[in-house]
């Protein structure tokens, strides 16, 4: 059971870093002009790269997180990212098709409306 919770924490860490990376890729000019949060062409790639970089423990076992969703909330100036990973390799023969999903969020504060 401890391995499951450790894996879940690692995926949550990947989701948090992916959210920060996605928030860094918000189009600043559009945000300043209209207040709308608009992702750039690099938002998904940047989020995935940071999720991969913050996955040291699970990567050793061949478990790689994938960014499965990015939601931009204009009203709250917030970017949320969902990251999922199949952790079957951690539990061979015990739990089939076990997928863990976690959400990370980042608030946009560096630029103002």
Give your account of this protein's structure.
The protein has 113 residues and is of the alpha+beta class. It has one domain (2-107). The protein has 4 helices and 3 strands; from the N terminus they run H-H-H-H-E-E-E.
SSE blueprint and pairings:
Layout: H1 2-24, H2 28-34, H3 43-53, H4 56-59, E1 66-73, E2 78-86, E3 99-107
Antiparallel strand pairs: 1-2, 2-3
Sum this structure up briefly.
The chain is of the alpha+beta class. The chain has four helices and three strands. The protein has a three-stranded antiparallel beta sheet.
Query: What is the distance, rounded to the nearest whole angstrom, between the alpha carbons of the first and last residues?
Result: 46 Å
Strand line-up of the largest beta sheet: 1-2-3
Count of helical regions: 4
Radius of gyration: 16 Å
Helix percentage range? 25-40%
Q: Outline, from the CA principal axes?
A: elongated
Unreliable stretches: none
Q: How would you state the average pLDDT, rounded? A: 87
Overall tally of structural domains: 1
How would a crystallographer describe the biggest sheet? 3 strands, antiparallel
Beta-strand percentage range = 15-25%
SSE sequence, one letter per element: HHHHEEE
**Classification by helices and strands:** alpha+beta
Instruction: Tell me how many strands there are.
Output: 3
Descriptors for this entry?
113 residues; single chain; alpha+beta; 3-stranded antiparallel beta sheet; 23% strand
């Amino acid at each position: 059971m401890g391995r499951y919770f450790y894996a879940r924490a690692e995926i949550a860490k990947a989701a948090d870093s992916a959210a920060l990376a996605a928030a860094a890729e918000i189009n600043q000019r559009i945000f300043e002009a209209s207040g709308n949060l608009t992702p750039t062409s690099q938002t998904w790639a940047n989020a995935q790269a940071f999720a991969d970089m913050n996955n040291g423990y699970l990567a050793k076992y061949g478990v790689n997180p994938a960014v499965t969703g990015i939601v931009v909330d204009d009203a709250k100036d917030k970017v949320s990212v969902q990251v999922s990973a199949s952790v079957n390799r951690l539990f061979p023969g015990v739990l089939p098709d076990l997928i863990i999903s976690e959400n990370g969020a980042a608030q946009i504060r560096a630029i103002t409306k």
